């Protein structure tokens, strides 16, 4: 866990999601100008090589894993404001999803674009985590071991790669 430096510590009066009384609040972005914004997030799911092969060959019993995960990722982006407290509902103008398959893992990269008063990195992160969860759900029957556990399966390295802000 990262330690907070003196420069990063904030008093109650400086916290944007907390009132001076300690109550939670949504940040007022009403006076901010609209900007074109873009965020890209990425993450990976580690799977057995035989599972990756089944995905490549479209031999997973539940259906097309990557197509289903793509739909899940896009839906998650569109509904981020419903799952992250104090997150603004923003107009999503574009979502791109890109899967890369290796021998024992799949990387999902989600790029989100909007024109508005606040950024879209939370939407990109939600797209990645949900998309990877959908992959896990689609392949769990072939990933679990004889004891019903998932020793080779794991979602890792979810992070924001970039975010951009340009005047609209």
From TrEMBL:
Residues 26-165 form the Molybdopterin cofactor biosynthesis C (MoaC) domain. Substrate binds at residues 86-88, 122-123. Gene3D superfamilies: Molybdopterin cofactor biosynthesis C (MoaC) domain. One of its GO terms (biological process) is Mo-molybdopterin cofactor biosynthetic process. Keywords: Lyase, Molybdenum cofactor biosynthesis. Pathway: Cofactor biosynthesis; molybdopterin biosynthesis. InterPro entries: Mo_CF_biosynth-C_arc, MoaC, MoaC_sf, MoCo_biosynth_MoaA/MoaC, Mopterin_CF_biosynth-C_dom. Its EC number is 4.6.1.17. Belongs to the MoaC family. Catalyzes the conversion of (8S)-3',8-cyclo-7,8-dihydroguanosine 5'-triphosphate to cyclic pyranopterin monophosphate (cPMP). Homohexamer; trimer of dimers. This is Probable cyclic pyranopterin monophosphate synthase. It comes from Natrinema pallidum.
